[in-house]
Amino acid sequence: MVDVQTISIILAACSFILAAAYYVINIQEVRRNRRITLTTTLLQHFMTDDGYMKIMELGGMKWDDLDDYFNKYDSRVNPENAAKRMSLWNTFNTIGMLYRKGLLDMDTILASSGGIIYSQWVTFKPIVEFYRGTDYGENSYQHWEYLAEKLGETRDVSTRTRWDTMPSYRNKSTTE
Predict the structure, then answer these.
(1) Same structural domain for residues 131 and 113?
(2) Which of 167, 159, 63 is closest to 119 using CA atoms?
(3) What is the DSSP letter of 134?
(4) Same-domain pairing of 107 and 167
């Protein structure tokens, strides 16, 4: 015969298991909500008038070679452009870091900004590589570079931009 104490112990164990399961589910939901909030906050950078203006301004930059670039756009010559460029580059790098850590998934990046991140890397890779040897550390923007490489490996049309196939779009150094 089952006594009251045994029933009490079984009920306590079941209550503990249910509480633990609720806690785990609640933690997962909190993480999911934080991820959504983080993603929205980070990607909002691109989805505002100011964000689009920065992207369009960077898209309009033209130079013939590194000397021409530095004469027009280096931070010592054009600090306004450099501030906009750094703002976007740092955002791209942060997105790359979050992707590497598993906090952002590729589908979200592709749907929101994959083409921008990829095309900006293709355009500015020679500039970043030069700055790594002079003004920046050797690992600067490594997360952006990693993400751009992953985006370049995808077969999703949203990452293949018209800039990939237009040799005269930007400058000679990124298309050769």
Answers:
(1) yes
(2) 159
(3) T
(4) yes
Q: Does 170 score more than 50 pLDDT?
A: no
Q: 9-46: per-residue pLDDT in tens?
A: 888 999 989 999 988 998 888 888 877 777 777 777 77
Residue ranges making up the domain that contains 136: 44-175
Q: Which two tokens mark 136?
A: 């920046």
Whether residues 48 and 92 share a domain: the answer is: yes
Are 119 and 46 in contact, with CB atoms under 8 Å apart?
Answer: no
| Beta bridge partner(s), residue 171 | 63
Please provide the DSSP assignment of 94-126 as one string: HHHHHHHTTSS-HHHHHHHTHHHHHHHHHHHHH
Distance CA 16, CA 12 (A): 6
> In this structure, are 62 and 22 located in the same domain?
no
- Please check whether residues 157 and 86 belong to one and the same domain: yes
For residue 38, what pLDDT is reported? 75
**Number of domain units in the chain:** 2
Spatial contact of 115 and 161, defined as CB atoms under 8 Å apart: yes
pLDDT digits (tens, 9 = 90+) for 135-165: 888 999 999 999 999 998 885 544 444 444 4
pTM for the model stands at 0.71
User: In sequence order, which residues have a C-beta less than 8 Å from that of residue 5 and are 6 or more positions away?
Assistant: none
